[in-house]
Amino acid sequence: MENVLRIKEEEIKNETVSNIIYKLFWVYIICGVAGFGIETIWCWIDFQEFSSRSSDIFFPISWVWGVGGVMLYLFTVKNRWNHSLYIFAKCTVLGAAFEFLCGYLGEKILEVTFWDYSGMPLHIGRYINIPFCLFWGLLGIIWVKKICPVIDRKLKKPSTAFSQWMLRAFLIFIIFTQLLTGVALLRMHARQQGRESRNYIEYILDCCVNDQLLHSFFPKMKPVVPIYLKSVVLV
Asked: What residues form the membrane-spanning segments (predicted)?
């Protein structure tokens, strides 16, 4: 058994950089699309309404779930032979830290919240909820024990020239649309601060990717109330 584990670990260590990048790209896509579907279904069940949970205005994908999947893969790729309780604890902590980081960055950079657990029981601040952290832990066990071995077996770098060309085209598409979405959100933040467009790109964003369109893609996005306004309300 120890020999088998040693061989498996050596296979992981000996992977080429290009194979690792290829694998991480598809982990990002698979987890991002799956996360979009899970959150969309959850909102339909919980709120009886359809709302987009995409992080991309051109493609149905959640970058939070995508990055979370990549992070989970990188941090647990050597843990698949560990005890499930250890994996559960590790993924619970990783999930909580990742959710907090994403929520905190959204608040500080864009001055918006994309989710808020403060109205739910067992929350820790706005961005961490204990039941969801435990869900990360359970998902981590399934991920490490069941999904990762399949990924390592099935996700192989394409060998034909056509499939490699298609992969590059899809990679460029994803990078472009994710960057465009991020720039559009930054421009929205600038508009809300009263900054007029300073160049042709900002003018095009104001015309084609306005606040109404962005809110249709991010229906749970809410502005953060500045501290000085909170103090006024309290008074």
From this structure: 20-45, 57-75, 87-106, 126-144, 165-186
